[in-house]
Write a structure and sequence with these properties.
Layout: E1 12-17, H1 22-37, E2 43-48, H2 52-62, E3 68-70, H3 74-81, E4 91-95, E5 101-106, H4 111-121
Length: 123
């Protein structure tokens, strides 16, 4: 169990994903690049809804440079609380440095759209 409050104080991008999800596989390399670009200003967190061994292999293969948590059974409930009533993946919640949710995105989040949020958040 992890508390998201440990990352409070910086903007936070929480992405729910799975290795078998094609749109997830498309956006993760962009998240990796943006985490590198905004290092120290924004924190990405991945919440994997998948088997731990699959996620570990995927993370190593792609070189994920941000924390990846294993969502297990409670991740679906957490997504619903965040506003994902459909339970679809990928799903991203975006928070400002005060811990206030400013946006949610269901489906593949394009780099350009996420950068628009990050430019304002990383000031």
């Amino acid at each position: 169990m992890q508390s998201f409050s440990q990352w409070k104080g910086k903007p936070l991008i929480i992405n729910f994903w799975a290795t078998w999800c094609s749109p997830c596989r498309e956006e993760i390399p962009e998240f990796i690049a943006l985490q590198k670009q905004y290092a120290g200003k924004v924190r990405f967190i991945g919440v994997a809804i998948d088997e731990q061994k699959d996620v570990a292999a995927f993370s190593k293969q792609y070189g994920i440079n941000y924390p990846v948590l294993f969502g297990e059974a409670n991740a679906m409930e957490l997504m619903r609380k965040e506003g994902n009533q459909l339970g679809g993946l990928p799903f991203t919640a975006i928070y400002n440095a005060k811990g206030e949710r400013i946006a949610i995105e269901l489906g593949r989040l394009k780099k350009e759209k996420l950068e628009n949020y990050l430019k304002d958040l990383a000031r």
